[in-house]
Amino acid sequence: MATALGGHAPGSDKARPWTFYALATLFGVYLLFLYGPMIVIYILSFQGENGGVTFPMVGTSLVWFKNVFRPDQMANIPASFERSLALASVVSVLTVVISVAAGLGFRRRFPGAAALFYLAVASLVMPSLLVGFGIGLGFQVLGIQAGLFTSALGAQLTWTLPFGLFAMFAVVNRFNRAYEEAANDLGASAAQRLVYVTLPILLPGILGVAMGAFTLSYDEYARTTLAVGSENTLPLEIYALISSQTSPVLFAVGTLTTGLSFAIIGVTLLGIRHIQRRRAAGTLGPYITS
Q1: 47 phi and psi, to 5 degrees?
Q2: pTM attached to this predicted model
Q3: Tens-place pLDDT, residues 223-251
Q4: CA–CA dist 144, 274 (Å, integer)
Q5: For residue 72, what pLDDT is reported?
Q6: How far apart are alpha carbons 86 and 233 in whole angstroms?
Q7: Which of 34, 40, 196, 212 is the one with CA 20 to 30 A from 51?
């Protein structure tokens, strides 16, 4: 009617109110504020050999990326990078195992379920430094040597587990138990039902929990600094490098670590997409159909 009378269709650009453009502009400013500093860091990481940490750039080079792996660097970036990868991998696996077990276990109500859940996520409301300090002090009182895979591992689990539980509970709540009932009718055992039905259906959510736990652990600083012992992770080495010297090496480290994080996220999303396509085709298992 509006078009026939010479007006504009409701979906056209001219029919959009001014609030749309105001919100779009606000969102654009937010994205610039969020990613602007990161883009500056990426650009300055290719600073020339005689350049500094500010603009203008004095040529371009890869010398600062080479310096990251230089053996006489004041901060041992390669060794700390390996420690962070190893610790993040262990944290990711433990977070997935505990979160999946909790998600499946909490499908049935049991006495103390609410108290146990709130106790598991209570560490989110506590200051991170106090959590790390408490864990480090606890290990000292017990006479246990603080280390990467003891106290630091526990400190990081207090950060990754609550998020893993939230994500897995949301995934499990959308799970249709009719698939499990169908597997029971077909004579599947409890182990077969778990391996061939439940876990494949939950797999995209499990990969998401693993990715989230890995990235949270990979760049965790506050909870780790007072519980890690003598071996620093990458965030701690970067902080030591910042306090000792300022050079484009810092920007090169930031570019490399951010690139790794995006690569992990990309691989995970591609894996989830592949799983969803196979699920739609009905090829994930004998009990799963589209």
Answers
A1: -60, 150
A2: 0.78
A3: 998 888 888 888 888 887 777 667 788 88
A4: 45
A5: 62
A6: 10
A7: 34
CB contact at 8 A, 75 and 237 = yes
pLDDT value of position 289: 43
Distances (CA, A) of 116 to 113, 142, 161, 182, 223: 5, 25, 13, 32, 22
Tell me the H-state helices in 106-198: 113-121, 128-141, 151-173, 178-185, 190-193
- Pair of tokens at residue 52: 């500094």
Question: Which phi-psi region, left, alpha or beta, contains residue 229 (left: φ > 0; alpha: ψ -120 to 50)?
Answer: left
Q: Average per-residue pLDDT in the chain?
A: 83
76-281 topology per CATH: MetI-like fold (1.10.3720)
Choice between 52 and 36, residue whose per-residue pLDDT is larger: 36
d(CA 179, CA 123): 35
